[in-house]
Amino acid sequence: MSNLDVRPKPVECGGRDDVSAGPVHELLPPRRVPLGESTFVRRLLPSLGRRMVGAWCFVDHYGPDDITDQPGMQVPPHPHIGLQTVSWLHGGEVLHRDGLGSLQTVRPRQLGLMTAGRAIAHSEESPRAHSPILHGAQLWVALPGTHRHTEPAWEYHADLPVVTAPGFTATLLLGELDGTASPGSTFTPIVGADIALQDGADARIPVKPDFEYAALTMSGIIEIDGEPVAPGSMLYLGCGRRELPVRAADGPGGFMLLGGEPFEEKLVMWWNFVARTGEEIAQAREDWMTGDRFGTVEGYHGDRLPAPAMPATRLKPRGRTR
Fold first, then answer.
1. How many structural domains compose the chain?
2. What are the Pirin C-terminal domain coordinates in residue numbering (predicted)?
3. Which residues, listed in sequence order, are joined to residue 257 by a DSSP beta bridge?
């Protein structure tokens, strides 16, 4: 996943100062932005007023889009540092390539997890022969300081654990839910789950009071703790709950539950980099433009993505909300 904005603004995030210590309802409206040649996404994090949920620092939702006669997702090779990328699909396929030589087609309910660490480049595209509907989410997880320079890695998990209870099933992307754990590598206390609700389901999801949470509706109208949340919108929930009431308000539906311990460290996000200082980001940009450090993505038919110009203002880490 890339931020393709040619004039990206620096985002200063992290720290516990503005974490909601108790339960809240904060609806995060999406911002429509282009992704590649023909795809538009709804950007939910970072947003005006909310920049992180636990270690989750970037969330895009896209589709369902009919790409029958279109190329679909086409994101050229681009760099990352200091984060993990999570590819998650409800419909379609995404072909992943990276500087490690990885080549993998990710399909619905399969986890594509890339740890950028010190540096990696990758591309994402709909295969030439692809399904007619593309629908999914792309997310970033910030790496803590002790692991932000780790060696880059790619993981693919075709079979993920599932929690079942009356009215719902929950597929575990990352972390743990109700005693069930995902095989995906994590570096901070975190959870990511895709929860499918049956028609008329009225359920309670077990959560941790010291985690902060948000819910991204993928399909249907879902009532999250009594608040209706439409597809492509996300509700920030704060901390302090032990269970989360959810209800399928009008037929079956599904949502992603994202949570984790509030991220203590303060960060600077700019373009596709998560760092601690502006100097670190400037060096990563220079290395990408000169061909150092990130490796070569083989097999993508097209040019790699050039980095935007650095902003004139000095980049520095601050708090979690604007």
1. 1
2. 193-293
3. 193, 215
- 312 is a domain residue: no
Nearest to 276 by CA among 139, 186, 146, 86: 146
Per-residue model confidence as pLDDT tens digits over 221-257? 999 999 999 999 999 999 999 999 999 988 999 999 9
CB 194 within 8 A of CB 205: no
> What confidence category does residue 322 fall into, taking pLDDT thresholds of 50, 70 and 90?
very low
Which helix H or strand E contains 279, and what residues bound it? helix 278-290
Judge if pTM exceeds 0.85.
Answer: yes
- pLDDT for the residue 7: 65
Instruction: Evaluate whether residue 94 is within a structural domain.
Output: yes
Nearest to 245 by CA among 204, 198, 207: 204
On whether residue 151 sits in a domain, the answer given is yes
Answer yes or no: is 187 within a domain.
yes
Which CATH number do you get for residue 30?
2.60.120.10
